[in-house]
């Protein structure tokens, strides 16, 4: 099983978006329908969702007008209104606005070895009814600068690498200052980092330039440097690796000041168990072999930390979680390796190189 891939041939933002939207129309409209269902179950009205989409697009147009143009182009190609594509890109912000909660989510590990490039792996957990949303997308935001991203159909970026040797992992957070007054979507911060940054410091500066309404952590990685860039309306903090070059992150703030407003862990305490699991398996997560790193992540509830999630089909769709992908970045080569599913299904043959 592999994820669908698309390589853009167009260079301008609107044209690039329209090309993607035209080619992936069915997948994009299906992703929008899945999020519409999720928002409805979580308690949002159609009028609220449209207003939030319009607001997200307006904020994006101020912060990065070329990204707003790309969203408009994707919408045109997919036969949708621009606000509808903005809704898909702002799904984290809308879920924060609704104050939606659940018990799944992602785990990320980065190890900077004494010799050789960074060794990374993460699980990406999301709602099982959206398992057909992920895709792999390659494009050149400027000549000679290639970006490859694992994302959801219609979303401008998520986890990825660029040809300058920088990559990003992605985990959701929640903070007391999250608000329904929508700001720049955090997925677009990840996209702009991939488009523009060549260093971890540049990635953090891009994150600090955005006014946000929802929280997340973007772990930026180069061959020899890394930081978990924790983003919230209360501020941005770049958390470095420890003295041994180890940087682990789940779904709670690690920065001491931002952690004072922690929301996610109070409602989803499993994030602490997952972080302990990662720290207890540093040796395996330091392995040069990605397959070994993925297997070191493996843990199932209730007997172990819920790093590898499987949906409980007795629950409503907003409370069903599945590990939809396991991903490692090769920042030196500007590529990623992706496995469809959780660590418990990993073998040497299941990795898709992109």
From TrEMBL:
Keywords: Acyltransferase, Transferase. Transmembrane segments: none annotated. GO terms for molecular function: acyltransferase activity. The keyword Transferase applies. Pfam families: AAT. The keyword Transcription regulation does not apply. Residues 121-342 form the Peptidase C45 hydrolase domain. Residues 1-12 have a biased composition (Polar residues). It comes from the Bacteria. Residues 1-23 are annotated as: Disordered. This is Isopenicillin-N N-acyltransferase like protein. It comes from Nonomuraea solani.
